[in-house]
Design a protein that fits this description.
Blueprint: E1 2-15, E2 22-24, H1 51-57, E3 64-67, E4 91-93, E5 98-100, H2 106-115, E6 119-124, H3 131-142, H4 148-155, E7 166-169, H5 184-201, E8 206-209, H6 222-231, E9 237-244, H7 251-255, H8 257-279, E10 286-294, H9 297-300, H10 321-336, E11 341-346, E12 356-358, E13 364-366, H11 370-379, E14 383-390, E15 393-396, E16 399-403, E17 405-411, E18 418-424, E19 431-436, E20 443-448, E21 464-469, E22 475-478, E23 482-488
Parallel strand pairs: 1-19, 2-3, 2-11, 3-6, 6-7, 7-8, 8-9, 9-10, 10-11
Antiparallel strand pairs: 1-14, 4-5, 12-13, 14-17, 15-16, 17-18, 18-23, 19-22, 20-21, 20-23
Helix pairs in contact: 3-4, 3-5, 5-6, 6-8, 8-10, 10-11
The structure holds alpha-L-arabinofuranose (AHR).
């Protein structure tokens, strides 16, 4: 098959917010206990964090890590997780039916963020708790000293304030599965009053209000409008969450999800613009896609684990190569919507729906989805440019006329080098692609695997990486079922 990609330096979508490359660690399954934290592990540092895991996280260059949930946060008492470890309570976590020993809490998480060079994005509990508890946590974290809670932090051993800039006002509050779920009116009011108190405590913080838990929620749209009506003036971002499935091995439909994500983003962006026009608000409300990923293996395979244990092993997806292609495609959608999506968290980071897996007491290794995220995060910074793609399309259960190529173009922050990220969704045919770009000579990196269901193991990766030069007049051949990165160095880069 044949395709053409046209990119002009003048056709700018937006500078890419580096927070597009963020992730998420929840007190869920083995994300924390035997994931990032395992005192006694041969690689554990003095604080109990696994250095082998940190070594796999650092190259991802994550801007932010969201914490501590997720559904977990809706029953969380943050006070349980600070102070001397030996006196912290063990509780039942009703979100995930596990035991929470509170050995990792807010302060330890701050240390972990520093260890992996990321910023924290903290969520407050708007399920079982109120505005006061949320404002208290801002005081504990961000006030330098001289107040009860800031001095309490100092007495716990963290002299300097944590300076947490980004906060989520609860999590998925429309979901019946949420601890103390709310109607849009109830949540909107609570988010409004909580936002006011949190910003009065520290005016420099930014706040994310909960949008719908996913696009299929029956209240989608109404929820967003009602929440914005109540708390719009106090917030900076509205959240989107969506996980994508592969039903009955239908990979073409899985790979069409990037288009569905695009539609979802555009719908929420339109609602935010509508609110802005109605209210005359100056600064647009940004979108925080703070949970996105592929999620279906564990559920399809009927995975379960005994309840009320610490680090209950759940939702440990074993991602295959088709999932890696899907993640690569979803990333192109996020880049192509960089004008509205300012924050995006790959959910999650370790063991739970994660690009990184661990064995308790043993090895840490990467899943297939790690590779496209790593390369996009490392090379996808700068300015998003509109890529005009002319390519054949296919029909599948997820939709008609799905283009065979997903593509995003990024102009480097310095110099004028261009990087294209392209997924060839044809499972059987290569795509011969001509580039109509300012520079046409450069390097093509392609990721493929022996089969769509190939997986990584602790012993190694199934992914094959090939690097070739672009052909004459900017011609590249993208293998069937491949993720590709085309790097076209600019004049300033010496080409
Ligand atoms: O990321 C796993 C869970 O998915 C989160 O706890 C919740 O917010 C979402 O439903």
């Amino acid at each position: 098959m044949k395709a053409a990609i046209r990119v002009s330096r003048d056709d700018v979508i937006s500078p890419i917010d580096e927070r597009l490359y963020s992730s998420f660690v929840e007190h869920m399954g083995r994300a924390v206990y035997t994931g990032i934290y395992e005192p006694g592990h041969p690689s554990a540092d003095g604080d109990g964090f696994r250095e082998d895991v940190a070594e796999l996280i650092r190259p991802l260059r994550l801007a932010h890590i969201r914490y501590p949930g997720g559904n977990f946060v809706s029953g969380y008492r943050w006070e349980d997780g600070v102070g001397p470890r030996e006196s912290r309570p063990v509780r039942r976590d009703l979100a995930w039916m596990a035991l929470e020993p509170n050995q990792v809490g807010t302060n330890e998480f701050m240390d972990f963020c520093r260890k992996v060079d990321a910023e924290p994005m903290l969520a407050v509990n708007l399920g079982t708790r109120d505005a006061q508890a949320a404002a208290d946590l801002v005081e504990y974290c961000n006030v330098p000293g001289g107040t009860y809670l800031s001095d309490l932090r100092r007495s716990h051993g963290w002299e300097a304030p944590h300076g947490v800039k980004l906060w989520c006002l609860g999590n998925e509050m429309d979901g019946p599965w949420q601890i103390c779920a709310k109607t849009a009116e109830e949540y909107g009011r609570l988010a409004c009053e909580t936002a006011k108190m949190m910003k009065w405590m520290d005016p420099s913080i930014e706040l994310v209000a909960c949008g719908s838990s996913n696009r299929e929620m029956p209240t989608f749209g109404d929820w967003e409008r009602t929440v914005l009506r109540h708390c719009g003036q106090y917030i900076d971002y509205l959240s989107l969450h969506q996980y994508y499935r592969c039903d009955d091995g239908d990979v073409p439909s899985l790979l069409a999800r990037s288009g569905q994500m695009d539609g979802f983003i555009r719908e929420v962006a339109a609602i935010c613009r509508e609110y802005q026009t109605e209210t005359g608000r100056e600064k647009p409300i940004g979108l925080s896609f703070d949970e996105w990923n592929v999620w279906y293996h564990w559920q399809n395979e009927g995975g379960d684990a005994p309840r009320w244990v610490v680090g209950r092993p759940i939702e440990e997806e074993r991602y295959n190569f088709a999932d890696a292609l899907a993640v690569g495609g979803l990333l192109t959608t996020l880049i192509n919507n960089a004008d509205t999506v300012k924050i995006a968290c790959l959910a999650q980071l370790v063991n739970v729906l994660a690009p990184i897996s661990t064995q308790p007491g043993g090895r840490a290794w990467v899943q297939t989805t790690y590779a496209p995220f790593l390369l996009t995060s490392r090379c996808g910074r700068g300015t998003a440019l509109r890529a005009e793609v002319d390519c054949p399309a296919y029909d599948c259960a997820a939709g008609r006329d799905v283009p065979y190529l997903d593509c995003a173009a990024v102009l480097a922050p310095a110099g004028d080098g261009l990087t294209l990220f392209v997924v060839n969704k044809s499972l059987t045919e290569e795509m011969v692609c001509t580039l109509d770009t300012p520079v046409r000579t450069g390097e093509l990196t392609s990721l493929t695997a022996p089969a769509l269901d190939s997986v990584n193991t602790p012993e190694g990766t199934c992914i094959r990486k090939t690097v070739t030069r672009t052909g004459p007049k900017g011609c590249v051949t993208l293998p069937p079922a491949s993720w590709n990165m085309i790097r076209l160095p600019g004049r300033a880069d010496g080409e």
